[in-house]
Amino acid sequence: MANHTHDSAAHRWFGRRYEELKSAEREAVEHAAHRRLLSADTNAQFNESLTFGERLADRVARFGGSWTFILLFAGTLLAWALLNVAWLRHPFDPYPFIFLTLLLSMLAAVQAPVIMMSQNRQAAKDRLDAAHDYAVNLKAEMEIMALHDKLDALRTEQLQVLIEKQNDQLQLVQRLLERIERDAAS
Asked: What is the pLDDT of residues 26-73, one digit of tens each?
């Protein structure tokens, strides 16, 4: 069960009990109450949990979406076409390049799901980043509200001190006036 500090902070900042808060709100309250940092490197956290297959898929997707791949692929296609049309007497894949079409289809059949896996992982990472950003922003907002409360308390305290000083000065002026009136009457 949450302690009194968490309950009072939850009520003060969210207008709800601690148990009624969402997990990000609870985390922000706990970090703010204990003055702990909430920010973290989500990239490192996310990358630590990747399996070998996921890392390999990311590398394949990164290479498959690069200019290096496009230029190598274009060079390979051009060399294939030149070999089978102009340079070889007995081409291994004569025009219309049926074997090349088969290889390209197989490459596309493998590359597309790998790229989609990588994109899905990137979307999951983006969701993690967004949730983390929300929690950090929430804590920052709570800290700002706490600072406002402290400033308001300081202003109130300073105003009370000022009022007390003014009351003391007013009493001093009243006593001086009474003394002046007594001296004038005598």
From this structure: 888 887 777 777 777 888 888 888 999 999 999 999 998 899 999 999
Q: How far lies 105's CA from each of 4, 68, 100, 102, 111, in Å? A: 64, 20, 9, 5, 10
Neighbours of 9 (CB within 10 A): 21
Burial of 150 (0-12, 13-18, 19+ CB in 10 A): exposed
The tens digit of pLDDT for each residue in 147-158 reads 998 999 999 999
- Rounded (to 5) percent helix, strand, coil in the chain: 85, 0, 15
Q: What is the pLDDT of residue 1?
A: 44
54 within 8 A of 61, measured Cβ to Cβ = no
Nearest-5° Cα angle at 63, 58 to 64: 95
